[in-house]
Structure formats: C-alpha cells, structure tokens
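Q: My collaborator sent me two sequences in one message, no labels, and asked for predicted structures for both. Can we handle them in order? The first one she listed is below.
A: Yes, handling them in the order given. First sequence, followed by its structure tokens:
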Amino acid sequence: QVQLVESGGGLVQAGGSLRLSCAASGRTFSIYTMGWFRQAPGKEREFVAAITWSGVIIPYADSVKGRFTISRDSAKNTVYLQMNSLKPEDTAVYYCTADQRGNYGDSAQWRSWGQGTQVTVSS
C-alpha cells in the first residue's frame, strides 16, 4: 500500500501561482505512475496530469495545458504540480494518486489516493 500526502494548496488570486507537492511512502517500489486529479463542488473528479517514474509525461488535460506542469523527484518519492495563470475555474480539491493500471483519465484505474488539498482561486 502506498501512502500519499499532498501539500501546497491555498487561496490565490486569479493569475497567480501555486505549487502542489505529493510525498509518497510505503511500498514506493511498486509505483509506476503518479498523477493529479481535481474535483470541484458538484462535479466529477477529473484528470489533470500524470508522470511515470521514468519521467514520461502523460498529455495534460486540455483545461490546464500550457499553464500546469507536473514533475517528480525520484530520490524524494515526490511529485509536484506547478500551477500558473490560475483561473477561478481551477478551484477544486486536488488529489494526488498513484499506481495506475489502465486508462490514465479514469479515476477508477488508480489504486492509491491522498486526502486532497484545497485550491481556491478568487476572481
């Protein structure tokens, strides 16, 4: 079992930036890919970004392409999500996830989840 702990969320004005971090512990040797999803109130959880431990970046969601960047530090078992040019519609709880076994965009294909971190973008 992999434990994931997110940090870095908060309140920011539109146009601002935040960097989310996700630290993995436990059976980290089993991790192949890590990713980020987000869920806004009343909406389904949606894929944002993912990266394999070999550094291959899965195509970003169209809604964040060009503004968000995913990266990882393998030595620290940590994945980051740099979010720039934030918009009010980016407001959501952001979840870190790991151990994907199927379609990257399907949240049901990911086995481990963090508790989530709130990102609020004010207009």
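Q: And the one she listed second?
A: Here it is, processed independently of the first:
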Amino acid sequence: QVQLVESGGGLVQAGDSLRLSCTASGRAFDTYIMAWFRQAPGKEREFVAAISRPGTGTAYPDFAKGRFTISRENAKKTVYLQMNSLKPEDTALYYCAADENSFIRYTPNDYQHWGQGTQVTVSS
C-alpha cells in the first residue's frame, strides 16, 4: 500500500508557472508507475502526465506537451509536475496517482492509489 500527498497548487495568472509535488509513504516508491491527472468541475478526470519507474520514460497528452514536465526522485519518494505557460483552461484539481503495473497507462481506472488532490486556479 502507498499513501500519496500532493502539494504546490495555488492561484496564479495566465502565463505563470507552478510546480506540483507528490510525496509517497509506505511501500517502495520505485515499484510504481506515477502519474498526474486533473479534474475540472463538471468534467471527467483526465490524464496529464506519467513517468516510468526509473524515470527514463514519460508520456503526455497533446495539451501538456511542451508546457508540462513530469519528473521523479525515487530516493525522496517524490514525483513532480512542472507546469509552465499556464492557461485558464488548466484550472482543475490535480491528482497524483500510482499504478502497480510495469508500463505507462492512461486512464484513471488503471491506477490503484490516489492522493487527495491539490487545486490549481489560473486567472486570465
């Protein structure tokens, strides 16, 4: 079992940057695929980024490519999401998730462990 706690959200202006962090406790962190998802009011939870166990592989949807970067420090049991050039449409509750599988997957149902989320609000 792994417990996940996100931090780093906040209120920013369009064009600003934020770095989200997710720290894990419990079972060996480096055995999990880690990902970020987000959910805006009235919308489904959507995939934002994922990273392989050693951190050598990443995946992003089109809206995140070139603006968001996921990274991890296994020794610190932490995964990060660097978000640049933020837009009002990036406003959402951002969740950290962990998957016990060995390859990156893209849908929320694939992930077994979730944090409580951290709010990101981007004003225009």
